[in-house]
Specification:
The chain is α/β, with parallel strands linked by helices. 40% of the residues lie in helices and 19% in strands.
């Protein structure tokens, strides 16, 4: 429990929705403190001006509403994609990668406004509380953190609604009943979980998906797209240069229209339990396939395989909230070094839920037609392979002879 007397001003991560509006009022009552609201546009697709109006109605003077889409993609999503990061083999970390940016801005706003505390609306069961707070403490070790879901007694939907009604907080009609599932969204993905989705044995209803048509309903004709890369980052689509956020938005449109990027996952949360999530990452799925495609001709085998060894560790660090940890930065430095030569163009075929590389070219290509041809060549002496194989087999031959004597 936070010491109420020490909190004079708090920066709240504020969506403008019912839960964070209740948190805002609860902070004013419980801590008798000034509240600064911070609402980030990370490409969630919602109108954010209503958040300003609701904050003003609740008496807030310092209201921050910021479009962070370009910074989000440039400084967080793209570095992660240079690593080809996927958690537990399939999850593209769309929620995980958004939290460090929000935490960073909250700490910066706290410094700007003289706030001594920050607050988030994550529950005590999930990963986000860890991600937010590891970010806060990494950037300001002395900051006070308030996590209402770990403190208050508003432990049911009924109590939350009663609190909202008592304090004249507007409640949308669709918020009075139990929500069928909860949604978190940003420019990289949508994440849906809870309630109707909690039984992992039941197929996800189609109405849960928000950014993609089902593969069955996708066009019967394939879509072809070319993605240009420079130093590991996507910079163009079909020859047209685009900013990071604009490019990802366009890939989302292409992927969504072709039923690409749906994932039904039972994952292991950092806090120890398993959870079932439904994810849509249409643009990110295309981007990952394309990035691996351009790496396949620009990186040597040793570098590529080392990256693949580092990736699960990197992905786990992100999932668990350690974006600002030195070990993540160490791995990132190695990845970014490798990415210096990852430039060129990848052509992909998008068709009914799949994104497939069908061509790749690069000025930095290591692919040698002379060496791989089945026709006669003058650059590779096949007789060299005999000594290569015998030296590699020496250890195995000695082992076999030794074991035969035992």
């Amino acid at each position: 429990m936070t010491d109420h007397a020490n909190v004079k001003k708090v920066v709240l991560a504020y969506s403008g929705g019912l839960d964070t509006s209740i948190i805002l009022k609860w902070l004013q009552i419980t801590y008798d403190c000034e509240v600064v609201t911070f609402t980030a546009d990370l490409g969630q697709g919602e109108e954010l001006e209503p958040a300003r109006k609701k904050a003003e109605m609740l008496g807030i003077k310092d209201i921050y509403i910021e479009d962070l889409r370009e910074e989000f993609v440039r400084d967080f999503v793209f570095p992660m994609f240079r690593a080809n990061a996927v958690y537990e083999g399939v999850y593209l970390l769309g929620t995980s990668i958004a939290r460090p940016l929000i935490a960073k801005r909250q700490i910066e706003i706290a410094a700007e406004t003289g706030a001594d505390a920050v607050c988030h609306g994550a529950t005590g069961k999930g990963n986000d509380q860890v991600r937010f707070e590891l970010g806060y403490y990494a950037l300001n070790p002395d900051i006070t953190v308030i996590a209402p879901w770990r403190e208050w007694d508003l432990t049911s939907r009924t109590r939350l609604i009663d609190f909202a009604e008592k304090h004249q907080i507007p409640i949308a009609k669709d918020k009075r009943g139990e929500a069928p599932f909860s949604v978190d969204a940003n420019l990289l993905h949508t994440s849906s979980e809870g309630k109707a989705l909690e039984d992992p044995g039941e197929e996800c209803p189609d109405y849960v998906y928000q950014r993609s048509v089902s593969p069955e309903d996708a066009p019967d004709k394939a879509t072809y797209v070319e993605i240009g890369f420079e130093r590991g980052d996507a910079v163009s689509i079909d020859g047209v240069a685009m900013s990071p956020a604009t490019l990802l938005t366009r890939l989302n449109e292409l992927g969504g229209a072709n039923g690409i990027g749906r994932l039904d996952l039972v994952e292991n949360r950092y806090v120890g339990m398993k959870s079932r999530g439904i994810y849509e990452t249409p643009g990110g799925t295309i981007l990952l396939v394309a990035h691996r495609g351009i790496e396949s001709i620009t990186l040597d085998g040793g570098t590529l395989h080392l990256k693949d060894e580092l990736m699960p560790r990197y992905a786990e660090l992100l999932y668990n909230g350690f974006w600002f940890a030195p070990e993540r930065e160490m791995i990132q430095a190695a990845i970014d070094k490798a990415s210096e030569v990852v430039s060129g163009t990848v052509r992909l075929k998008l068709y009914k839920g799949s994104a497939t590389v069908v061509g790749r070219t690069s000025p930095n290509s290591l692919y040698s037609m002379e060496h791989v041809t089945f026709e006669e060549d003058s650059v590779y002496d096949q007789r060299d392979a005999e000594g290569f194989i015998k030296l590699n087999a020496l250890r195995l031959r000695l082992l076999n002879r030794r074991n035969a004597r035992l």
